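DM from R.C. (forwarded with permission)

"hey, sorry to bug you on a friday — could you get me a structure for this? deadline for the figure draft is monday and I only need the backbone to look sensible"
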Amino acid sequence: MTFVSELEPQSLWAHFDQILTIPRPSKDEAKAREYVIAVAERNGLEYEVDAAGNTVVRKPGAGGRENVPATILQSHLDMVQEKNSGVAFDFATDAIEAVREDGYLTANGTTLGSDNGIGVAAMLAILEEDRLAHGPLELLFTVDEETGLTGAASLEPHMLTGRRLLNLDSEEEGVITIGCAGGADVHLHLPVKVEAVPAGATALTVRMTGLKGGHSGVDIHLQRANAIKTLARALYAVSLEESFRLASFQGGNAHNAIPREASATVVLEDGGSADRLGELLAAQGDAIAAEFQPIDPGASLEVFPSEEVGSAMDAASTATTLGLLNALPHGVMSMSYDIPGLVETSTNLAVVTPNGGELDILLSSRSSVDSALTALNQRIRAAASLVGAGVDEGGGYPGWQPDVSSPLLGTVKEVYTEILGEPEVGAVHAGLECGIIGEKIEGMDMVSFGPQIEFPHSPDERVEVDSVAKFYRVLCSVLERLE
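My reply, with the result:
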């Protein structure tokens, strides 16, 4: 145990301290699920696991509230695993090292996993509360939220009898969320022709580093630099003045994380000057750094000699690759006409990876308007078709339409106002599992709230310690108030 378990409320933080030691990438949450089940068994509680790995733990009502309708609490077990380059860390074996700074808990060079680990820890603390008067509880721990909400999509509805749900995956103190955007991924497969490189050909590696990245739903409006876009931009601009061929291009790690790093290896054509290429790239890097300095002050384009490479794309494939990466959209496409300050539609040029004779490109789009999401993905498809790239569209997930007349919202808002002051009620551009669960189970009344979590899906992720105590107090009070 570390200092984390000594924070207040200790019942919550002790569980989060343990969660920091448990590997829980999307699609491999078995150890996290085992921890949840161990807590349930230790407290003599029934649980059920469906085929996807979603787990429901049932806690009977207490304190004279045994016969009120059941309430569902819901969080997801998985986390986004991101780390800074140069940080020696293995998410599969190493415990996340928490650091307390200026009232926040963050991690040493990695994502912290407070998204949604704090929600999970709160639910586990509720499981062990023995002084709380509450109705029957169904605590739903979903899997694989971060790679497309597929756990919730596979949820077996019979596992839940309750028809009101508290989602604990929101990340802004003072806000109650009652709606979210829907989304869908688009996978592009760009054929590239690869040729042998003459022995002794000069090769350079070009890297875009130092960017903040962040959650592609929560932080997209901040207009932070995208490492894939800025690296492709620099290379495309230089290609207009100096000939080279791409030996590789890759960047990004997750569909819902704005890429923080990207790299490429380039091979000079016969007679090309490495010094000249380096100078041109440095100039592009300086321009990009100056442009994004206010929001991404660490942006850096690095150029250094590469080990000899045996093959590279031909000139046509190099031009097509850089042209497509420059042409593909990224960022905020439109703002909401109905809710001031809310992003309506966006896309994240998320991941580029080489795959034999292809370059795989992943974009993740979001919108609170179905027709706008369709139009955006058709725009991406149109760009791909111009260069002969194959297109696969992911299944997507539905948005969650706000219900301002929700009885559950009325209770949560009442309690929140009494404890912390009147909250803001609104929708978010990020995806929440409420949309899927509400589509699966008719008549589900849902709201979402949580502590102050900033810069999720990046190594800058942090959670405000005091806000966690406030969040937990509201949660407990809501459970005591619900009839």
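R.C.: lifesaver. The CA atoms of residues 104 and 464 lie 4 Å apart.
me: no worries. The chain has a mean pLDDT of 95.
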